[in-house]
Amino acid sequence: MKAVTIVVDERIYRLFQRYGKRSGRSASELIREAMEEFGRARMMGATSLADWRPASAGSVLVPLGADDDLLEEMSGRGSDD
To answer: Which terminus of the chain, N or C, has fewer Cβ atoms within 10 Å?
Structure first.
């Protein structure tokens, strides 16, 4: 790893510190991770979904059953059509 010195807005740095405390990580670790993600997404041209990290879409509203067909649900065609 290479040590670097950067100048950042105090407000942003405090946000990184607060988030780090809540997640048990250092601000430096979070900034490194943010730089890596920026590099992958914008500088190295991440072109595959495999390069993306999963994002939370929230909690499950209605669990799927064994008979549920997502393709029919997404296409708007029900089993009555």
So the answer is: N
